[in-house]
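Task 17 of the worksheet. Students: predict the tertiary structure of the chain below and write it out as structure tokens. Keep your answer in the requested format; marks are given for formatting as well as content.
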Amino acid sequence: MGQAHVLRRDRAHTLTASSTSRSVRPSTRRPRSSRAALRAAADSPGYPTTIGLPETRQAAIDWLSRRFGVTGLGPDGVLPVIGSKELIGSMAIHLGIGAGDLIGYPALAYPTYEVGAALAGARALATDSLTAFGPETPRLLWLNSPSNPTGKVLPLEHLRKVVEWCRERGTIPGLRRVLPRVRPGHRTDQRAPPRRLRRLPRGHPQRPLAVQALQPRGLPLRVRRRRPGPVGELLAVRKNLGLQMPMPQQRAMIAALDDDAHVVEQHATYAARRAKLKEALLLAGFTIDHSEASLYLWSTRGEDCWSTVAALAELGILVAPGDFYGSAGSRHVRVAFTATDERIDAAVDRLAGS
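Model answer:
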């Protein structure tokens, strides 16, 4: 963790990542249905297809319809991948973006967007402002809502404005949707209004390329596209690179997408953890910005992020320095509530005693 202090073993309670996503993997178990499906499909001889099983794609379509009311999405608009980060990091190359091209991505984001541009030989610009591009036109423009690390949810009007801007310039808009809202009072057992995916502009070649994460696997979803587009281009390249989701994982994904009950259960678990940790941070003098969604609290004490990291490390609480995601995060830390209930309770107690 760079400047973070060395902790005594009995004091370390990891709540978030310092430099990778591996240490913030949610602590709740995978749904029983998906674990059973994974075991049942363990002996799956033969090669899977890159485009995935028809059942995998249909499960994704059905889930989007139930959860968001998305309509008009066919099997050729869905492509299962090994992980959404893998897709984002390689997408520029696979879409033929390269030297001389420009890729835009959020001012606060994981380095994966910038790394993907570098691998393709393209330039990258981290910005939340369309005017920052000046006279240049990016080939690919990423949005991240809900944001990782801030948990900010972009308003519908902003999404519409960006998509229209991309349409006018021939830019491919990429929407990375990480995790749903996790807060008290938000219902997961009812279908949410499909605003962010369904009510965006129609009838133009640059429909949004939506990447939806499904822990622990990703689904890139090309929403409402009825003719060959980025999903078709990605498929054509990826099948020649041997990029295929193994059959057991596809069966587990189908089971997870079909199991709505576990979503309600996990939401309740994380909402309770979020409420505890948020109250403790506020009482300890922190301000929490954004954080409407996702599994993190974007927190600040109005000081350099590494000073906050060091202070919390003394309490045995590890958090991610905000500048890991970009210079705009230099006075924030990302505090995750992905640890176990026991560790969350311990962190709350230590914050109260600080």
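Marker's comment: The chain has a mean pLDDT of 84. Residues 55 and 77 are 14 Å apart (CA to CA).
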